[in-house]
Hints:
Blueprint: E1 5-10, E2 21-26, E3 39-44, E4 47-53, H1 68-77, E5 82-91, E6 101-103, E7 106-109, H2 135-147, E8 152-154, E9 157-160, H3 169-177, E10 182-184, H4 187-196, E11 201-209, H5 222-246, H6 273-278, H7 284-287
Parallel strand pairs: 1-4, 1-5, 5-11, 6-8, 7-9, 9-10
Antiparallel strand pairs: 2-3, 3-4, 5-10, 6-11
Amino acid sequence: MSGWHIGVVGGSGLYDVAGIEDGHWVEVASPWGTPSDAIFTGRVGAARVSFLPRHGRGHRISPEAIPARANIDALKRLGVTDVLAISSVGSLAEDRPPGSFTIVDQFVDRTRGRPSSFFGTGLVAHVSMADPVCPRLSALAADAAEAAGAAVTRGGGYLAMEGPQFSTRAESRLYRQWGCAVIGMTAMPEAKLAREAELPYALVGMVTDYDSWREGEAGVDVAQVLAQVSANAAKARALVLGLLRALPPERPASPIDTVLDSAIITARAAWDPTLAAKLDAVAGRMLRR
């Protein structure tokens, strides 16, 4: 067992976290490109925390252009042990109104063209995504969200769309038929990459709107989203600080910590040395064997 180091990936409306002790911005170089921004790292009590604004400060980066591989790799290089993602989402269910929070437990990936793996030809790995989030971190996030005063639903499927446009009405209604609870543009491939990097991952979806499925209502627009984003931000910051302060002193091991043990299929003698070198942080535990 060892201590916690929580990587917080903040989405729309969460560009900073107040209350971090000894905090400072650090630039982290990654062989997978330039991360979205520098990372603000410090402590809250006994827990280390590193905060990365997913879209960059000032919301500079469009959803389809987020450098997810560089982001996850950079967090791993800093020694992050677990990743808490905070994202603004649309609701596909009447009982998840704007202002409420959903603790996501499943994903449907409808993105396209985004690099979704650290592995590939020359070093192939297949991680399981059957249960894509960490149940213990998700429970901690749900408890912290409730303590922050949010209306919380534990569990729900997240439809990851390409964007940056919002859904058509036909798409929004189709995703409801599929059983998805919320919709967003950024959780994929982020969740897949976190799993490949052996980082337990949880996602808090902050609902800003009802997407475009409701009869007799205008479709979602940016003005509507931004108004709710501002209202959600204070609770999101309180959630993060509450979770960090509630962590047990010692971090128990997670099965996700060793997921690559049963995922890498390429024989070591056949590994591509160039790709293996890029994996020095993500798969360093395996490379050192």
